[in-house]
Amino acid sequence: MNTTPAMLSQRLHALSMRRAGLVAWLWGEPGIGKTHTTRALLRETPCRSLTVAATLPLPDLVRALPRPARLRAWTRAALEAVEAGRPVAAPPAQLLAALLGQLAPFVLHVEDLHEADAARLELTADLAAAVAATRGVGLLVTSRVPAPGTWPERGLMLPLARLSPEAAAALLDAEAGAAVPPEAAAWVFGRACGNPLFTREYFRLLARQGHLWNGGDRWRWRAPEGHPLPVTVEAMIGRTLQDAAGEPLETVLEALTLVPGADEALLSAAAGLTTAETSAALHQLEQLGIVAGRHFVHPLYRDVFRHSRAAPRRQAAARRAVRALDGAPGWAAAFVEEAQLPAEQALELYRRAVDTAAGPNEAARFQALAAHHAVGEHRARLALSAATTVQNFDLEEAARLCDLALSAAPDDPAVRVQAAELSAQRGLLDGALALLDRFEGQPGAWQHQLSVRLLGGDIASALALWREHASAQADCGARVISRVAGALIQAGQLAEAQALAEATLGGALTPEDRAALLSSLANAHFYQGQLTRAHEAWTELIDLCQQHGLRRQRAAALVNRSQARLRAGEADVARPDIEEAVGELLAVGDLRAYAHSLVMLGDLLTRQTRFEQAEERLQEAASVLNGQLSPTLVNAELALGSLYAEWPTPHAPFLNLRHARTAAALAERLGHPILRSTSLALRAQAEVLNGQADVGLRTADEALTLADGAPHPYLRIGALNARGHALRALGRSADAVRAFQAALERAEAAELTEAAWQCRLELARERQDPSAARACLAWFTGQQLPLNIAAVLRAFPELQAEAARTSSTAPTKVPSGGVRLDVLGEMRYGAPGAGDAVRGRQRRALLTCLLDGRLRGRPEVARLTLTDALYPHATEEQGAAALRDLVHQTRVALGAGVIQTTGDGYALGEVSTDAELFLQTGDTRLWRGPYLAGETADLGRPITETLYGALAARAQALCAEQPAEAARVGRLLCDADPYDLDALALTVRALRAAGNHRSLARFYAAARRDLLEVGETLPETWTAFVERHSPA
């Protein structure tokens, strides 16, 4: 009879009344909580108990049981005989039941019965029957499999189920001591599937690897790459799977990995066994706790088993599955590559899979796979057909397919045209145009040139080509015309764009073409200031997309409308549009467009000075792109760099430079001149911000050179501004004025109004002209541009009184009092360099939270945030009271000024910190040891990353000039992250430069041993390691 933990607990409590016996069978998969549940039940039961392993030999089991004060003589003699290994007349189960009856009330817990042999299973069943009739005695059995048919009818059975998503999230919250982000809980549940032990192990793995971290105010999340598996979970599953070694069990498991849940006929065919053989193997696998209901008991069992199979075994299993699934080509096609079928057989199977595909995306996937098995024109046709669909959601894959088609049919016009268009979309315009050279002079060749130049952003050349062929414009399709209209808008020829879109909309069009033209028309209206007509066009467009299911086009319309509303100063209504677009693009699975919309949302939030929210969206965009090289990835890094350029926090300059450098490197790899110029301009300003003005000037000049050859005026404006910032930092004021003036003239000529006002602000700052700055402030305020308002107030703080309504955008001032809080080592407080250690773990944790808030630009930390971080298990009232007491005690110990009370919480008082001083000066001597001496570092993990990142960058610079100091810093970095090979290489190079070869050899040998323990094999000598690991 099935029961519940509560009912079983009641029955166990009743044993003390000695009215009846009790037997119960608790079962479930590994990690489900059998041990936890039984321990909890026994802990609450008011009588003695004993837990023994099911595999314990009978003499040891008898020896382990306690003896009653007055043991019957025959029982004692029989027990002594069993202990000595001599035969006894009484059955062992009856003897054990008699002893347990004399111990009553008593509970015997037999653990992991699935590991026992048949004899022990029989003994346990007999013992259960005897105990059920013995008053005051309980027998609890735990196993991975259900109770056998020999279990007493009156016995209880408690199957332990996995946690629901809500319960699993609550378990994670309990492990974390605060709420874990829903995205993290969903990620863990998708892998642990509610298994409590697996859930905990995943939490520990993610926290250890830094994918889950506590930012001081709440837990944050960044999804890991790939499919990490906790070592403990893998080992547990691996040990269980060892019991299934040999045939036919392994063959059946191989079939289950490919066709889980299949009926016995299909499963037998996939395993190459008879139905009887498969049925017997399944029964045995169920008894081992590996399989339940023709499924692995947990998805991770499938993953671990599949990973353990050798390639020949996987190939043979896949071929059997293909034969078994002859009537289901879509299913069978999933195993073609692993089966390594002959080309003709693979092509035929993929052809049938395409015919039965659920939709165009699935069909394209099969065509792309088939193309690799075809040759010549057949390969080109398959690859081209797949690329046509794939380009809607994965430009890189579409480009690879076009390259494949080109290699198979280099002279095919359709292949060359589509490859050219895809190359243009990726920013490779020169290569795209080269693919069209063969069409020169042919009728219609100009249309291919036009389309490619439009897609590649060469607006001026495209429009010139359009006008050269005025008489042939009517032959162009609506899709090309919509792109021309978009180009006219970018060129500022708005009336012409409007007329072209309106004229084309009068003809017979597909919904897709009509949507493209309506989008161009709406933009033309908007940029002409015809806001009512623009919003009418957007409304019609959104309704059209809704009617015909054009979800991507609808999302694009929402994005465009949001940008229009933002520029119109309607930020509050712009944000819902783009947030809806973000959700829509995620729902349709267009991850490239989803990431792009996240970048735009992040940029919007940055412009609204909602920096923390912007950071989260932009980091998510970068995570979605997963390192896939694309213009959107570059834009994500650019947006992050721009965010940190504006966010007034001590650690922001380092992050600004890091992301700017990443964007520039990615743009160079992509070969995208526009993005390269933009990223170099950002990098130049970041270098200036980090005290490298001379380097920044060279970078700005490089950006300017690239901008001179581009048709986009904003590139030259950005490069000139970057040059002006560098010249200002170098003290060349007159040259800086000339650079800013040139940028202003360029912005005015291009009618880029906001950019022009930004240039006027830089000129006002260089000329120390408050009246000009006041005019800028008035314009930015009128346009509701808080980011620009903040820039004015940073440069001219005396205008604060005139901008009271935007005072929240003012930068945070860092106090420079006579006392300092030191955290670069053991936490100390007092006079700079002579402070005393801060006593009390909670005091240190409180000060860490407040410092984290200041460094992140949010000096005021809410009370609720602090109680969640410091007292996660307390009620709200208890946490608030404890926090008040902790603040009072900290003030008593360190001085009243150390902590300030704010409206909603607390902030650090008039206290400087060595962390801020280091970020400002780069002085590594401030580091006395690991950040916070390694204690509570998780309370500020992003700040930890920033501090150590800045320390690593500074150590690189010290290697040549101060190698001994660089080596000391390198050791700190290695202590912080023993598996950071860059830190190890830095330390080795510094020790070599310092001539400390003996210490170097010992240090490297120890590091090599530590890394070997986690599977990382390094060269035997440090010299070989340095040669292989060049500086980052």
Automatic annotation (TrEMBL):
Question: To which species is this protein native?
Answer: Deinococcus sonorensis KR-87
Q: Which InterPro entries match?
A: P-loop_NTPase, TPR-like_helical_dom_sf, TPR_rpt, WH-like_DNA-bd_sf
Does Repressor show up as a keyword for this record? no
Q: Which UniProt keywords apply?
A: Plasmid
What is the name of this protein?
AAA family ATPase
Q: Which SUPFAM superfamilies match?
A: P-loop containing nucleoside triphosphate hydrolases, TPR-like
List the SMART domains: TPR
Query: Superkingdom of this entry's organism?
Result: Bacteria
